[in-house]
UniProtKB/TrEMBL annotation:
Residues 273-283 have a biased composition (Polar residues). This is tRNA (adenine(58)-N(1))-methyltransferase. Belongs to the class I-like SAM-binding methyltransferase superfamily. TRM61 family. It is an enzyme of class 2 (transferase). It comes from the Eukaryota. It comes from Rubroshorea leprosula. Residues 263-283 are annotated as: Disordered. GO terms for cellular component: nucleus; tRNA (m1A) methyltransferase complex. The keyword S-adenosyl-L-methionine applies.
Length: 310
């Protein structure tokens, strides 16, 4: 969770207070962000939950409804916020975000420029990476989208680390106020090659730029532009494959003569005693298989380092 004070130093408040944002966790694919209000209630399939029962409890607590159902109250970390935020645009997910922060060499104290802001998924993680003394300046050409992102950053407690601007970076470039000051620049634009010359002017010597593009044609044109002032140009595609690990109870008496039980091979748990499978007609087995909901291609990440003048 990111709760910041006016001096831009992170402070960690581990107990829930009236007005806090919490992530209500029902299961791994059902979560929602809820603002705590003492007189409010949350209703879901598990029953009615009073917010007043949440106040004073530490984040991570298990709370019960009037029907005995329960949920967990989690802190709004950047990882969880990415999973529950409103999708005003296509967002970056955890695999791409972690890769971006690593390759942009972002550490506390960095000044980072971003365009466009979109739903603010990446911005939230960038803010935590530069905290407590760094800052993220993010720009979006869409005024309403920028205003919504600004409200979200207030809710998640990172507004002192992020400044949201309304600007057409493709057409106007970044503000001259940042010339030679940025440690890193991130571009998520339809035509990033139009903003690359301006981004190069903003970067410090040896600074790094990253451009996210869903299509390889965008990557090719961006790389052509990057070659004039950048070096170490590399493009990556991050593919994440998740697995489900479950226990299955099988009837070993149905094993045919060839030894098949009618499902894919799996690793058998070692029984607590020395009896053979034939002596144990039902057995717990562990099966691992790819998740049916695995996310495939999201986009291409192109990184480049500004050439040194000397």
């Amino acid at each position: 969770m990111l709760i910041t004070d006016p001096t831009k130093k992170l402070s960690f408040n581990r107990c829930i207070s009236d007005g806090d944002l919490v992530i209500v966790y029902e299961r791994h694919d059902i979560m929602k962000a809820v603002k705590v209000c003492e007189n409010s209630v949350l209703q879901n399939r598990f029953g009615v939950f009073k917010h007043s029962d949440w106040i004073g409890k530490p984040f991570g607590s298990k709370v019960f409804s009037d029907k005995g159902g329960f949920v967990y109250l989690l802190a709004p970390t950047p990882e969880l916020w990415t999973l529950v935020l409103s999708h005003r645009t296509q967002i970056l997910y955890i695999a791409d975000i972690s890769f971006v922060i690593m390759y942009l060499e972002i550490v506390p104290g960095c000044l980072v420029l971003e365009s466009g802001t979109g739903s603010g998924s990446l911005t939230t993680s960038l803010a935590r990476a530069v905290a407590p003394t760094g800052h993220v300046y993010t720009f979006d050409f869409h005024e309403q989208r920028a205003a919504s992102a600004r409200e979200d950053f207030e809710r998640t407690g990172i507004s002192s680390l992020v400044t949201v601007g309304v600007r057409d970076i493709q057409g106007e470039g970044f503000p001259d106020d940042f010339v030679g000051m940025a440690d890193s620049v991130f571009l998520d634009l339809p035509q990033p090659w139009l903003a690359i010359p301006s981004a190069g002017r903003m970067l410090k010597q040896d600074g790094i730029l990253c451009s996210f593009s869903p299509c390889i044609e965008q990557v090719q044109r961006s790389c052509e532009t990057l070659r004039s002032n950048f070096t170490d140009i590399r493009t990556f595609e991050v593919l994440l494959r998740t697995y489900e690990v479950r226990e299955w109870k099988t009837d070993c008496s149905k094993v045919d003569e060839g030894g098949s039980v009618g499902f894919p091979p799996c690793k058998r748990r070692q029984p607590s005693n020395e009896r053979s499978v034939q002596d144990n007609p039902s057995s717990l087995q562990v099966m691992a298989r790819p998740s049916a909901e695995s996310r495939g291609h999201t986009g291409y990440l192109t990184f480049a380092r500004l050439k040194c003048l000397s």
